[in-house]
């Protein structure tokens, strides 16, 4: 069974959030679970909340653009599948 690249990224983000949240006396388990499920968006929000606003906003903006791109490509793929 192979892991997808996206799942691997989410696991790395979850580990980072768990370790860093423990250092900052935040709820490490909650941040790790959210990071595992949602990934980069949660990482950006976490960075904003912990005072690293520039990096956080950059990650949030890229994560939102990525989700929008995936939705657009999915819709275009579905339309192409219906036409051809």
Give an overview of the whole structure.
- With 84 residues, the protein is an all-alpha fold.
- It has one domain (5-83).
- Helices cover 85% and strands 0% of the residues.
- The protein has four helices and no strands.
- The protein has helices spanning 5-23, 28-38, 40-49, 53-83.
- Helix 1 runs antiparallel to helix 2 (28-38), helix 2 runs antiparallel to helix 3 (40-49) and helix 3 packs antiparallel against helix 4 (53-83).
- It is elongated and about 55 Å long.
- It starts with a helix and ends with a helix.
- The model has no long low-confidence stretch (mean pLDDT 93).
Cα-atom radius of gyration: 16 Å
Shape: elongated
Mean pLDDT: 93
What is the string of SSEs from the N terminus onward?
A: HHHH
Please state the structural category. Answer: mainly alpha
Number of domains: 1
Helix content: over 70%
In DSSP terms (H or I, runs of 4 or more residues), the helix count works out at 4
Poorly predicted runs are none
Task: Determine the strand fraction and express it as a percent band.
Answer: under 5%
Count all strands and give the number. 0
Q: How many strands, what sense, and barrel or not for the largest sheet?
A: none
Distance between the termini: 32 Å
